[in-house]
Specification:
Strand order of the largest sheet: 1-2-3-4
Shape: globular
Structural class: alpha+beta
Order of helices and strands: HHEEEEHH
Helix content: 25-40%
Amino acid sequence: MTKEEIKQQNSMRDVLARYGMIPNRAGFISCPFHNEKSASCKIYDDSFYCFGCGSVGDIFTFVQNMDNCDFKTAFQIL
């Protein structure tokens, strides 16, 4: 399976669900990568961007940051 095939099969919302996160109606979550009280991390179909800390990336980057792992491990997780 290739990186693109994994991206096609897993949306950002699918990945968030694995970590028990659900975006609000506007598509924001509280960023798990810094301490905050309001939701500043915007979730798109295939990526995310935090307006608070500047974290940005795709599903692989999100898994890497959440599990503190390298790309290969994130690839295997997904």
